[in-house]
């Protein structure tokens, strides 16, 4: 059975542009994230009175947020200025509750305020897919499936994923990246009916990567490249939104079989690889299920009709 995602015998990181961006400023990220979360809340959202006075800034004032979190205004101000030194988990929990953060946002705040030390710089760590996982992809006949790693990099995939999304083997390893495909390739904009939601999901994932690895030069280089080349990316990146979508429905417009509505599931691999396995399936007996079977019957011929470089 044909295997895909072998990276042409090379590691993907060897093929990416040599120029690395400066590491992201963790203090600035922390400051801007807290400001953005505070700005989205109104006094009535958190049970505070609003006397109709003119508010110079949108959202809660720092004093109001500090009151809700049970910390001093000076302490919260220092934290919002990016100074998370020695902040306790209890204080972060209180601020997260005051800001009405989701679980993903709470985790992101913790990563920014209390960063973990990494023995190796992320840019130097090779993203390798275990051979058993590659074999698993090959056995998932009729099910589009692929493995994605840090920075939205596509690391391995099966024949059905190539038939559905395009044969990524034809791309240079550096281009096998969901962020580059969605924001820089018009054909992928046409492929995703809900392109805006796909774009949001990617940016949210990159934001979470930035929280975990602000010193990753390849991530900052990717963010810099997309910020220069895509106005949509700049707009979404500026929201500082983070969220995890582990399942849902994607609507596609495939050049061969037309419209598809597919359920997807994302499974985090529990081996410290920071990789996820994504699978797609259609409702049994639906037109989309028939279309997937048609793609499977065409085999490698189908990959020639989907987005290509």
End-to-end Cα distance: 25 Å
Helical content band: 40-55%
* Overall average residue pLDDT: 85
Secondary structure tally, helices: 13
**Main sheet strand line-up:** 2-1-5-4-3
Largest sheet: 5 strands, antiparallel
Task: Please give the structural blueprint.
Layout: H1 26-39, H2 62-69, H3 73-80, H4 89-98, H5 103-113, H6 131-139, E1 145-148, E2 154-157, H7 159-165, H8 178-184, H9 186-191, H10 195-212, H11 217-229, H12 231-237, E3 247-254, E4 258-268, E5 276-281, H13 287-298
Antiparallel strand pairs: 1-2, 1-5, 3-4, 4-5
Structure in a nutshell:
This protein is α+β, with helices and mostly antiparallel strands and 309 residues long.
Describe the structure.
With 309 residues, the chain is an alpha+beta fold. It has 2 domains: 7-21 and 124-304, Beta-Lactamase, CATH 3.30.450.180; 26-113, 434 Repressor (Amino-terminal Domain) (Orthogonal Bundle). Helix content is 42%, strand content 11%. The chain has 13 helices and 5 strands. Strands 2-1-5-4-3 form a 5-stranded antiparallel sheet. A hairpin with a 7-residue loop joins strand 4 and strand 5. Helix 2 (62-69) packs across helix 4 (89-98), helix 8 crosses helix 10 (195-212) and helix 11 (217-229) packs across helix 12. 36% of the residues are buried.
């Amino acid at each position: 059975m044909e295997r895909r995602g072998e990276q042409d015998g090379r590691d993907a990181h060897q093929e990416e542009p040599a120029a690395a961006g400066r590491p992201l400023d963790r203090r600035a990220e922390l400051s801007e994230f807290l400001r953005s979360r505070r700005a989205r809340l109104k006094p009535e959202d958190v049970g505070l009175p609003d006397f109709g006075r003119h508010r110079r800034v949108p959202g809660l004032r720092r004093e109001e947020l500090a009151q809700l979190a049970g910390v001093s205004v000076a302490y919260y101000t220092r934290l919002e200025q990016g100074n998370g030194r020695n902040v306790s988990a209890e204080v972060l929990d209180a601020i997260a509750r005051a800001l009405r953060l989701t679980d993903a946002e709470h985790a992101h705040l913790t990563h920014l305020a209390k960063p973990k030390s990494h023995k190796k710089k992320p840019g130097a760590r090779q993203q390798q897919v275990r051979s058993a996982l590659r074999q698993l992809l090959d056995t998932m006949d009729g099910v589009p499936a692929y493995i994605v790693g840090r920075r939205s990099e596509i690391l391995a995939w099966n024949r059905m994923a190539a038939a559905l999304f395009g044969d990524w083997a034809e791309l240079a390893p550096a281009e096998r990246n969901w962020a580059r495909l969605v924001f820089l390739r018009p054909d992928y904009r046409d492929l995703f009916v809900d392109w805006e939601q796909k774009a949001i999901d990617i940016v949210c994932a990159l934001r979470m990567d930035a929280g975990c690895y602000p010193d990753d030069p390849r991530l900052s280089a990717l963010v810099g490249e997309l910020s220069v080349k895509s106005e949509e990316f700049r707009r979404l990146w500026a929201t500082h939104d983070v969220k995890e979508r582990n399942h849902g429905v994607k609507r596609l417009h495939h050049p061969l079989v037309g419209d598809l509505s597919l359920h997807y599931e994302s499974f985090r691999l529990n081996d410290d690889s920071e990789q996820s396995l994504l699978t797609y399936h259609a409702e049994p007996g639906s037109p989309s299920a028939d279309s997937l079977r048609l793609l499977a019957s065409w085999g490698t011929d189908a990959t020639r009709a989907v987005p290509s470089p």
